[in-house]
Specification:
Blueprint lengths: L1 E2 L5 H15 L7 H22 L14 E5 L5 E6 L2 E3 L14 E5 L18 E4 L15 E4 L2 H6 L1 H8 L4 E4 L1 H8 L10 E4 L14 H7 L5 E5 L4 E4 L12 H12 L3 E5 L24 H22 L3 E4 L12 E2 L9
Parallel strand pairs: 5-6, 5-12, 6-7, 7-8, 8-9, 12-13, 13-14
Antiparallel strand pairs: 1-2, 2-3, 3-4, 10-11
Length: 342
């Protein structure tokens, strides 16, 4: 089934007026002007969408009118087109439990600087956000990648371009992919794509309350921890993933769904984020963070509940950050040197 955000006739006419205005820009216009024109056009389209759709569709305002998605009979995403061009997805062919053994999630906390990746031979590696910068220091190969923060895509297009050029499997949202395609031509994507989405805000569908999410999905698909704070854990990422304020938690849901029985967390420090820069940052390019705000009521409770839930099914979470927020409780503490294979 194909989903597209339709607009009333008068809104469509106004859209075409805006579109034509920017389609006729001369070829001599420099990249800066083109970028500014694109931003103006996108803003105009967003305002037109708000004019023609109710608040329950607000999360789709960037996707209209250039994105369409297809869903199967169960409502799972199976296709994505941008400006009429289909982008192949791994969603229809990749199933739950496709992998096994030990998987690694490499995040961006400063404790990454304590690990000598030159001594490690890792497989089943997922990077998140700016972890690709680790390849500047060590020959780390990323098999998978995950980002779901549009702020990261907008602020660090240099790192995003490096990620999407790699031969890896990228897990991202329809909206993040839209932002990527504003900066990278579709022909330049070297990665495979698997689209994930928040169960409350699915692409080109009306928003749902958490009560509606619970009604529509059994615990075997989406285990809900807290309705008011929208906390939970996804056993089936095709039905949605919970975003609690850190992409590392999204990555944990993905890696568990892929089938890894041990998941090792690298650089998931989660403490002093406001003052401790990410491992790859300098004072000049440091980005703000909301980790400290979400840590006590969203991030920490979610990780703790998820670790216990996964433990019941035989999945163990190991943590390499000795002084991080996950250095106690149900997380197995591991020294990175224990990963060295002689």
């Amino acid at each position: 089934m194909l989903y597209r955000a339709d607009a009333p006739e008068e809104v469509s006419q106004r859209f075409n007026q805006v579109k034509n205005r920017f389609d006729i820009l001369p070829g001599a216009v420099n990249n800066t002007l083109m970028s500014a024109s694109r931003r103006i056009a996108n803003t105009a389209l967003k305002l037109l969408y708000r004019y023609s759709h109710g608040p329950g569709h607000r999360h789709n305002e960037r996707l209209w009118p250039h994105v369409s998605v297809g869903r199967d009979a169960d409502g799972n995403l199976v296709s994505y087109s941008y400006r009429g061009r289909p982008l192949p997805l791994a969603n229809p062919v990749l199933g739950r439990g496709a992998f096994s053994g030990t998987g690694h999630i490499i995040a961006c906390g400063p404790s990454i600087n304590e690990i000598d990746y030159g001594r490690l031979s890792l497989s089943g590696v997922m990077g998140v956000n700016g972890a690709i910068a680790l390849a500047d220091r060590h020959p780390v190969r990323f098999d998978y990648y995950c980002f779901n923060d549009t702020g990261f895509v907008r602020a660090r297009p240099d790192l995003v371009r490096r990620v999407v050029a790699q031969e890896l499997l990228l897990f991202t949202t329809p909206l993040c992919l839209w932002h990527v395609l504003q900066r990278v031509p579709a022909a330049a994507l070297g990665c495979r794509l698997f689209l994930i989405e928040n169960p409350q805000r699915r692409a080109l569908l009306p928003a749902r309350t958490m009560a509606e999410v619970r009604r529509d999905h059994p615990d075997t698909e989406l285990a809900i921890f807290d309705l008011d704070r929208a906390l939970g854990f996804s056993h089936d990422i095709r039905k949605g993933v919970f975003d609690v304020g850190t992409v590392a938690y999204t990555a944990l849901q993905v890696m568990a769904w892929l089938g890894f029985s041990e998941i090792v967390l690298h650089g998931v420090d989660l403490v002093n984020a406001a003052t401790a820069p990410r491992f790859y940052e300098t004072p000049a390019d440091r980005l703000p963070t909301t980790l400290d705000r979400y840590l006590p009521d969203h991030i920490l409770p979610s990780f703790t509940r998820a670790a216990a839930l996964l433990g019941e099914s035989g999945v163990q979470i190991a943590n390499l950050s000795r002084h991080g927020a996950l250095s106690a409780g149900p997380f197995r503490q591991l020294d990175w040197r224990e990963l060295v294979v002689d």
